[in-house]
Structures are given as C-alpha cells and as structure tokens.
Design brief:
Keywords: Carbohydrate metabolism, Isomerase
Shape: globular
Pfam families: AP_endonuc_2
Distance between the termini: 36 Å
Number of strands: 10
Structural class: alpha/beta
Radius of gyration: 18 Å
Largest sheet: 8 strands, parallel, barrel
Number of helices: 9
Number of domains: 1
Protein name: Sugar phosphate isomerase/epimerase family protein
GO molecular function: isomerase activity
InterPro entries: IolE/XylAMocC-like, Xyl_isomerase-like_sf, Xyl_isomerase-like_TIM-brl
Strand order of the largest sheet: 1-2-3-4-5-6-7-10
Strand content: 5-15%
CATH superfamily: Divalent-metal-dependent TIM barrel enzymes
Length: 320
C-alpha cells in the first residue's frame, strides 16, 4: 500500500477527540433496541466521532425496499450529527432466520447469498461515504477441508473485490475466533494469496487478540500494519469469546490506543459490544469514560496517549 498508512481512511473526518489521528466510534449493534436515528443521537451526544453501522433488519436493512433512498437518509442523519461510519456485516439472522451468521463465504451452500449481502454493503458504504465494509469468513462446515474452504473464500473475494475497488470501498477481513479465518496470521495469508489488492484490508478486534491470538493486542495491530482498515474495541479474557465492557477482561486499552497512534492509523476504532443493547446508553457512556481514562493513562508517566504523536498532550473539550 502506498501513501496513507490506513486503507479507506479519511483523516479530516471528526475523530471524537482532537489530536487523535483515528476516529473513536461506537457500534450500532450495541444499540439494537434503539431506532437508528436515536442510536446516532446517543453516540453523538456522548462525544464519539463515528459508528460501526451493522446492516440488519432494524438498522438499515440491506434487503429492504428502497435501499438507495434509505441509505441517503442515513447519510444525512450522520452528516447532521457530525459522525462518520464504517459498515459492519455481522448481523446474526440477516440472511437466515434459523441459523445465526449463515450462510458464509466458506460454506458449501448459500455463498451467493452472502456475496449478495456484501455486494449490497459495498453499495451502502459508497452511498454513505463510508470507506470500509468489514466482514469475516464464517465457520468452516464439518467435513470441509481447510483447502476447500480457502478456495471458496478466495473465489468469493475475486468476485467482490473489483466491485469494491470501483466503488472506492475497502473490504476489511476480520479474523474471528472459531471461524475459518481465526487469527491475524490466517487473514494475512488470505490477503497475500490475492496479491494484496488495494481494496482488501484487515479488521482487528482487540478483544479477539486476547481471546485467540498468541501475541497481545498491540502486537496484533502491528502485524496488521498498513493493511489495518478497521478496529473494534472491547475487552475479553483468554480463551473466552465474550465481548466485555472495558475493565472486565485483559485488554490494555491505553496500550492499544498508543499503538494506534504510533502506527499512524487514521480509520475507525469503534466499541464493539453486541450483547449490551439492553443497557446501550449507559454502556456507551461508561465505554466513553473508559476511553477518556485510557487516553490520559497515568501509567504512561503523566503523558497522554496523544503525546506519542504530538508531544503536546492537548485533548478536546469532549475528553476533559
């Protein structure tokens, strides 16, 4: 990748905190009990700069009628609140009412349905002015070899990547515990097999690094390097794939934020708590407070996270 260190980034967008090169956001899958405009109100009121927008029946249904018109309405809603977005495609039952997260890009049946979802997600992202569509491989079916699953994934991406490139959107592959692409090493192998196309990047969920990676979250981010296109923030414990609020697991949030600054990352870093919608506003508020504390982590020797980049430590009013 040339030039910009982060694929699909728009550095001049709102960040949710001056002096940070990246945008602090909140995932709408953690506000699933809210109407989308009201979810955006919560996110903006708490000082976040963007959202990870999960396409689902309740928030911009990708298979509903009049998708273009509804996408433009969401774009206006984002703009009036000063928010940017990335598009997430992990809706649980958006494709099959009986099977969570099915079909997938590595399954024997139904791949065309998942491809169509991602195709629509790319169109939505382009319509929103969102630079990234995040996705994952899916779970390898019982009896399917790793080689067969990889071939299915590569062929699916060969179909989708030209369309993403034409739309100016980056498809960002997320390693997911239990999936065929489970680790950052797995994801890098896929990107390399396709020749590192400019329209393909990587999503890193920092909790997954604690749960499922041999190295810590900061090193996982460094391994993604210039391919890093999207970041999800949460806490997690080793070996347990459960998204937790900050402080309930083993993620060193201040270290993660310092690493993102040091990498020159300019994309979205959105809180990902998909099982906390029942207490969405309070969880979002506590998450924001935890981010603020991490940004001025006293363990850094009275230096803020932004000192790594600017040497000033100046924070926006929203962070004070």
């Amino acid at each position: 990748m040339s030039g910009n260190r982060t694929r699909g980034a728009t550095p001049d967008a709102a960040t949710g905190g001056a002096d940070l090169p990246f945008t602090l956001g909140y995932g709408t899958n953690g506000l699933a009990d809210h109407r989308l405009p009201e979810a955006l109100d919560v996110v903006a009121a708490l000082g976040y700069g963007g959202v990870g927008l999960t396409l689902d029946h309740h928030h911009l249904d990708p298979f509903g009628d009049d998708l273009t018109r509804r996408t433009l309405a969401v774009r206006r809603a984002l703009e009036v609140r000063g928010l940017r977005a990335v598009v997430e495609t992990g809706g649980r039952y958006v494709l099959d009412p009986f099977r969570k997260h099915e079909p997938t890009l590595v399954g024997a049946d139904g791949r065309s349905r998942r491809i169509e979802l991602l195709r629509r997600a790319v169109r939505v992202a382009a319509g929103l002015g969102a630079p990234v569509v995040s996705f994952w491989s899916g779970v390898r079916p019982v009896g399917t070899t790793a080689d067969v699953a990889t071939d299915r994934l590569l062929r699916s991406l060969e179909t989708l990547l030209p369309e993403a490139a034409a739309a100016g959107v980056v498809l960002s592959l997320e390693p997911e515990p239990g999936h065929h692409v489970a680790t950052i090493g797995d994801a890098l192998a896929v990107v390399d097999a396709l020749g590192r196309p400019s329209a393909l990047g990587l999503t890193v969920d920092v909790g997954h690094a604690v749960c499922n990676e041999p190295q810590d979250p900061a090193e996982t981010l460094r391994l993604a390097g210039d391919l890093l296109a999207n970041v999800q923030l949460d806490d997690m414990r080793p070996g347990v794939h459960e998204h937790l609020p900050f402080g309930e697991g083993d993620v060193d949030l201040a270290d993660v934020l310092r690493t993102l600054v040091a990498l020159g990352y300019t994309g979205m870093a959105a809180v990902e708590l998909p099982r906390h919608s029942h207490a969405g506003p309070e969880t979002a508020r506590r998450s924001r407070a935890a981010l603020d504390r991490a940004l001025t982590d006293p363990a850094a020797g009275s230096r803020s996270v932004v000192d790594v980049r600017s040497g000033t430590g100046r924070l926006s009013e929203a962070l004070r």
